[in-house]
Every structure is written in C-alpha cells, then in structure tokens.
Design a protein that fits this description.
132 residues, alpha+beta, 5 helices
C-alpha cells in the first residue's frame, strides 16, 4: 500500500495493555506501533478487516514520523475527538489540508474500500487525495 514511502524494516509492534493502538514515534532508531495485546495476532494480515484497517492507519503515523512529522505536536493540533478524525470526501479536500489523524483515516478508508469494505468516499476520491 505504501510502496517505497514507508521503511518497513524499521517498524516494530509492541504488545501493550492499552485499549487502543498508537504510534509513540521513534525509539532507539526504530518506529514503534503500540498495539493492544487483546487484538494482537501473530499474523495481522490474517486478522479481520477492521483490525487490518487500524494497522494501516497506524502505519500512516509511522510514515508521518519517518517523514519528519512530530507526532506529539501533530496529535495535540489534531485533537482526539470525532472531529479530529473526520474529513469530507469533496473535491476541495487535499492531503496537505488534513491533520495527521484525518490523513490516517483517508488511507484507512482507502484500504477498507480496496478490501471490499465501505468508506465515505469513492475510489476516485482516494486515488486523488492519497499520496501513495
């Protein structure tokens, strides 16, 4: 999904007791995804679409960090309520105008659509807005 835009060799998943996944940023030269132990499986590619889609969402945050985005500042700017994740699939919507959570949702929704799920926009919207 990300192609060369994501250095997957630096990504590690850490099982945590927390109820939701998050990316704390780079530690010790590696990019970490903290994942709820309750839903972590040995092979996330075999997990239900809902779990795989969240993993893709978190990989967007890894990509952002690898591109130099300070995730703490980005999260503080975006917030954590429903509005932080909401976007309108309209012609005026552009990647650069989205906060870090909206960017991750756009890619997550594109993935869901490609995997046979539903999303707020159509394929043309995601092809236009997503950079990868």
């Amino acid at each position: 999904m990300f192609g060369a835009a994501l250095n997957v060799g630096r990504v590690r998943v850490l099982a945590t007791p927390f109820p939701r996944a998050f990316v704390p940023g780079r530690w010790f030269g590696l990019d970490w995804i903290c994942w709820p132990r309750a839903t972590l499986t040995a092979d996330l590619s075999a997990a239900p679409l809902s779990i795989r889609a969240v993993f893709v969402h978190e990989l967007v945050h890894v990509h952002q960090a690898q591109a130099g985005v300070n995730l703490l500042i980005g999260k503080l700017k975006a917030g954590d309520g429903p509005a932080a994740y909401a976007y309108a699939p309209v012609p005026e919507c552009v990647w650069e105008g989205l906060n870090i959570e909206q960017q991750a949702m756009v890619v997550e929704h594109r993935y869901r659509l490609e995997e046979g799920g539903t999303a707020p926009g159509d394929r043309a919207f995601y092809d236009r807005v997503c950079p990868f």
